[in-house]
Amino acid sequence: MTGRRDHGDAPRSAPVTDAATSARMSRQRRADTAPELALRRELHRAGLRYFVDRAPIRGQRRRADVVFPRRRVAVYVDGCFWHRCPEHATDPKNNAEWWAQKLAGNVARDRATDAALIEAGWQVVRVWEHEDPRVVAQQIVALVRGTG
Question: What pTM was computed for the model?
């Protein structure tokens, strides 16, 4: 293995336009975002125990935000910008072509991940960052406990 990440056809990195943009991008978290933490808090409050930031399928590099291995449920909390939420997605003005390719690659990778998990017998839950964590947690609890 070369240690390279799977980024599809997207370019490796965006041309940096200024120091402020570079600083802002370096602060983007891959795990433990506020929406993830809020959802995990609600799931824990409901009595569920789970794994965090884990590849559902052994050997697969793509990691789910919350994983219930025994029930074969993988939960992804998707950011509206990065995963192109139909309600809140925005198109960057700077480097527009690069960003369009990058964000389309993210969506394509999400679909490929979902398909691979479903084929392997997993249930995939995709949650938008703006969704109410209490409502989403109730849906996940029902799914994991087999009542949903």
Answer: 0.81
